[in-house]
Specification:
Length: about 300
């Protein structure tokens, strides 16, 4: 066992008994949503996973320990600290561990730690990707490279249109990362159910997805899988409203020269401000929806 890893007893027990476990990330708590909705959502997502027959494992770094499964107090600590917690991707993990600091894990870092613990399925809101203007800025999330090499499936509502969805699709194709659409042929765009892009393979049940995952990993094909799950119809947002907010936020980020790891949190916060409270309500609902599908896929993968 990795000397830096602390697996919560409930998670360890489920893994030892081949029972379903769903990993959850913590950057969505500290950098993705405001207090107190971030704490309420993190706990509600865990409860949703339990209600759907799986064990939740929220992942973060607490005092330099890689935690797989958090207490409610630890969730509150991250939620209150917000942007002052270090946002950790692959590159940042050694620093935060060596300095025994707190860290919130992105999709990439959550995949790494889930893999260390032996967890195969991870549910979140949206993945990072190739940013608009990446031809100039080279801003491509480390989430994509991680998906290319780490064996964890990520259930998400697609990617926000703060990104260039077409370039993100191309990059994933190059890395050999399959993009599955749950009951859809269209790549969902987070707040909206559809985009002008397609998924690689439509899958109509969690069993089908679990069989896909076992075929991939039993063959020894390393890397992750994107399981794109559209936001429930009743919570989807008006596409023009989102489009305008995203364009405005991207424009401001260029004007203010926001780069590197600050870019995504800036855009997320600005889009939320520009769209008012609706986008937060949608964001919460799509995460819950992904937790439900993630639980079902994890359960079927245990049987596959
Ligand atoms: N997209 C969202 N919500 C989020 C994130 C992305 O819609 O909370 C977070 C995730 O933690 C993701 C990270 O892994 O931002 C990507 O950051 P970057 O682009 O700096 O890699
Ligand atoms: Mn980036």
């Amino acid at each position: 066992m990795n000397q830096y890893l602390d697996i919560h007893p409930d998670v360890a027990k489920a893994l030892a008994n081949n029972q379903p476990v769903v990993a959850l990330e913590s950057t969505i708590i500290s950098h993705g949503m405001p207090w107190p909705e971030n704490s309420e959502t993190a706990k509600l997502v865990e409860q949703t996973v339990r209600d759907n027959g799986a064990t939740p494992a929220t992942i973060a770094i607490i005092n330099g320990r890689l935690k797989v499964g958090l207490s409610n107090d630890e969730i509150d600590e991250l939620a209150k600290a917000g942007l002052s917690v270090t946002k950790c991707s692959r590159r940042d993990l050694p620093f935060v561990v060596a300095k025994k600091q707190m860290g919130a894990t992105t999709v990439a870092a959550t995949m790494i730690i889930a893999d260390m613990a032996g967890i195969k399925v991870f549910a979140t809101g949206g993945i990072g990707g190739v940013h608009r203007g990446a031809q100039e800025t080279f801003d491509i999330s480390a989430d994509l490279q991680e998906l290319g090499k780490t064996n964890v499936a990520v259930v998400c509502a697609g990617a926000k249109s703060i990104l260039d969805l077409g370039l993100t699709r191309e990059y994933l194709e190059t890395l050999g990362v399959p993009v599955l659409g749950y009951k859809t042929n269209s790549l969902p765009a987070f707040y909206t159910r559809e985009s002008e892009h397609t998924v690689d393979y439509r899958q109509d049940s969690s069993e089908e997805i679990a069989q896909f995952l076992s075929a991939k990993w039993n063959m020894g094909l390393e890397g992750g899988v994107v399981i794109a799950n559209p936001i429930p119809e009743e919570y989807a947002m008006d596409s023009d409203k989102i489009k305008n907010a995203v364009e405005q936020a991207v424009k401001e980020s260029v004007e203010q020269n926001i780069v590197g790891k600050e870019s995504t949190p800036f855009l997320l916060a600005r889009v939320a401000e520009l769209t008012g409270g609706d986008s937060l309500a949608s964001n919460i609902q799509l995460v819950l929806n992904n937790a439900r599908l993630g639980s079902a896929v994890a359960a079927d993968y245990c049987k596959a």
